[in-house]
Specification:
The protein is of the alpha/beta class. The chain has 2 domains: 2-103, 60s Ribosomal Protein L30, Chain: A, CATH 3.30.1330; 110-264, SPOUT methyltransferase, trefoil knot domain (Alpha/beta knot, 3-Layer(aba) Sandwich). The protein contains 11 helices and 12 strands. It has helices at 22-25, 41-49, 64-71, 83-90, 110-114, 129-141, 159-164, 180-189, 206-211, 230-235, 253-264, and strands spanning 2-5, 35-39, 54-60, 77-81, 98-103, 119-123, 146-149, 174-176, 193-197, 204-205, 217-221, 238-241. Strands 8-7-6-11-9-12-10 form a 7-stranded parallel beta sheet. Strands 1-4-3-5-2 form a 5-stranded mixed beta sheet. Helix 6 (129-141) packs parallel to helix 11 (253-264). The chain starts with a strand and ends with a helix.
């Protein structure tokens, strides 16, 4: 690790961290260059422990000691900047002290990720990074063995997703589905049954389904606006709904994922 003082926001060595506002990156599914941003010492620590490789770090001086303890054995430049430089570069107040530019690990195949899994969460078409992060946190905390995300899902490694997940995107094995039919074939080959969470007249209630849950099951969750696609619903072995009261027909997708995962726990 090499500590380097940087006093100008225009310094090109800080380009990895430049203009990271949600507006600038929200529409980007996979940031260019195969990188993602880990924000805060805790998230950086979890990423490094998961085997992810840092490319560079920008840190405010008062947070240097914490970063030194995390990255002392890594060959990585650590740019030490004043608070005003950090804010000018990123476009927001960096309250957590440190940002790391991390190399993205290669994604594994669906078959590899679900091998041996008994409980899988599938997220389809969910564009909100906060919901993605919250769903990953639920998956980690409630015992999901793997998460699959569709091509139109927001990026689990986007900095807001990572932050909301509290770094659990580094704990739960996951990958991105590239072809739905191929993914379903891989799930079938692993003897995983598909349960679609949806509002339909023929849906079985979650508690009833959980009482006789398959030994291996994947819970499919769609976006709050459109719900699951026709292809996802057609591939389901069961349509499941969470019984609601108070005139409310559904929960936020991350909350629904948490409820469904909890119900599926052995």
């Amino acid at each position: 690790m090499e500590l380097i003082d940087v006093t100008s926001a225009a310094d090109p060595r800080l380009d990895d961290f430049r203009a990271l506002t949600d507006t600038a990156l929200r529409a980007v599914s996979e940031p260019a260059g195969g990188l993602y941003i880990a924000e805060s010492a805790k998230v950086i620590e979890r990423a490094v422990r998961a085997g992810h490789r840092p490319r560079s770090v920008m840190v405010q001086r008062r947070w240097v000691d914490g970063i030194r303890s995390l990255l002392s054995e890594h060959d990585v430049p650590v740019y030490v900047v004043p608070d005003e430089v950090a804010e000018a570069v990123t476009g927001f107040a960096v309250h957590r002290g440190a940002l790391a530019s991390m190399h993205r690990p290669p994604l594994h195949s669906v078959a590899d990720v679900v091998a041996g899994a008994s409980l899988v969460l599938i997220l389809e078409g969910i564009g909100d990074h906060t919901n993605i992060g919250a769903a990953f946190r639920a998956a980690a905390g409630l015992g999901a063995d793997a998460v699959l995300v569709s091509p139109r899902c927001a990026d689990p490694l986007y900095r807001r997703s990572v932050r909301v997940s509290m770094g659990t995107v580094f704990q739960v094995p996951w990958t991105r589905i590239t072809d739905w039919d191929a993914a379903v074939a891989d799930l079938r080959a692993a003897d995983i049954r598909l349960a679609a969470l949806a509002l339909r007249d023929d849906a079985v209630s979650l508690d009833a389904y959980a009482k006789n849950r398959p030994e291996r099951v994947a819970l499919m969750m769609g976006s709050e606006g459109e719900g699951l696609s026709a292809d996802a619903l057609a591939s389901a072995d069961a349509i499941v709904t969470i019984p609601m009261t108070g005139g409310v027909d559904s929960l936020n997708v991350a909350a629904a994922a948490a409820v469904a995962l909890w119900a599926m726990k052995p």
